[in-house]
Each structure stands twice: as structure tokens, then as C-alpha cells.
Amino acid sequence: QLQPVESGGGVVQTGGSLRLSCTASGISLDRYEIGWFRQAPGKEREGVVCKNYNDGSTYYEDSVDGRFAIRRDASKTTVYLQMNDVSPDDTAVYYCAIGGRGNVVIPWNCRQGQFHFWGQGTQVTVSS
Predict the structure, then answer these.
(1) Which of 97, 104, 112 lies closest to 45, judged by CA?
(2) Are the CB atoms for 51 and 33 separated by under 8 Å?
(3) Strands (E), the chain
(4) In whole angstroms, how far apart are CA 4 and each of 39, 79, 85, 91, 106?
(5) What is the C-alpha separation between 31 and 85, in angstroms, rounded?
(6) What is the number of H-type helices and E-type strands within the chain?
(7) What is the pLDDT of residues 13-33, one digit of tens each?
(8) Phi, psi of 91 (to 5 degrees)
(9) Among 14, 38, 125, 126, which lies 20 to 30 A Cα-Cα from 106?
(10) What is the model's pLDDT at position 50?
(11) In the Cβ-directed half-sphere of 110, how many Cα atoms lie within 13 Å?
(12) Which among 45, 34, 49 is positioned nearest to 100, based on CA atoms?
């Protein structure tokens, strides 16, 4: 089984930047469906950005589009969530999730049900 592990959370001021990392036992995440989700206090978990590394499809939630980016290192063992120009509304526990591999999913967006392996989350707090 895959076991995603997130890291990089912390406290950041409004307008600042933060980068979260996701790994899964050091294996290559090539061709996998990778999602970043978040859950704020009192709110349901929501998709932030999800990418299908099989065909390159990427979906950004409207509120983060243009501010956040999903990236991957050269070894393909680490997926990053680059968070720029953050606001207090971004405060949440952020989760990395892994879905299938080698698929083409149309339309592509963040669907929690298609992600089968979830990390424990990392806390991001944006101060005002």
C-alpha cells in the first residue's frame, strides 16, 4: 500500500509563501493521480489542486488558481504544493492523496472518492 506523508506546514503571514511536500515511501509517483486537499476548522474537506501525472491534466480550485501550483521533483518521488500570496482563508490542514495510476479521467477535477491513499495532514496557519 502507498502511504503518503506530508511535510512543510507552519505559520506564515498573509501574502507570504509556503511549500508543502508529499512523498510515499520514496517510490516514484510517475503516472499517479495526486491530489492536495484541505480541511479548515468547521468545514468539510475540499480539493485544492489535483493532477493526473499520467496525462498531465491539472485542476485548481478557483480560490487558489493563480496563487498555488503543484510541482514535482526530477526523481518523481516528491510532489510539492507551492503556496503563494496566502490569506487567512487558506488556513487548514492540508492532505496529500494518491489515486490510481495510468488512467485517463474525463472530466478531470478533485474528486475525493477517486483518491485511495491519504496522508495524516500538515497544518498551515496564515496569520493576519
Answers:
(1) 112
(2) yes
(3) 5-7, 10-13, 18-23, 32-39, 46-52, 58-60, 68-72, 78-83, 92-101, 117-118, 122-127
(4) 17, 10, 26, 21, 24
(5) 29
(6) 0, 11
(7) 999 999 999 999 889 999 999
(8) -65, 125
(9) 38
(10) 98
(11) 18
(12) 34
> Would you state the cell numbers that stand for residue 111, as one nine-digit string?
474528486
Q: Report whether 5 contacts 122 (CB < 8 A).
A: no
Q: What is the pLDDT of residues 78-123, one digit of tens each?
A: 999 999 999 999 999 999 999 999 999 999 999 999 999 999 999 9
> What confidence score (pLDDT) does residue 1 get?
82
All three cell numbers of 76, joined, read: 518523481
Whether the CB-CB separation of 108 and 59 falls below 8 Å is answered with yes
Residue whose grid cell is 502507498: 2
Count CA atoms within 13 Å of residue 19 on its CB side. 9
Q: Which of 11, 16, 54, 21 is nearest to 121 (CA)?
A: 21
Cα–Cα distance list, 67 to 64, 70, 104, 121 (Å): 5, 10, 26, 20
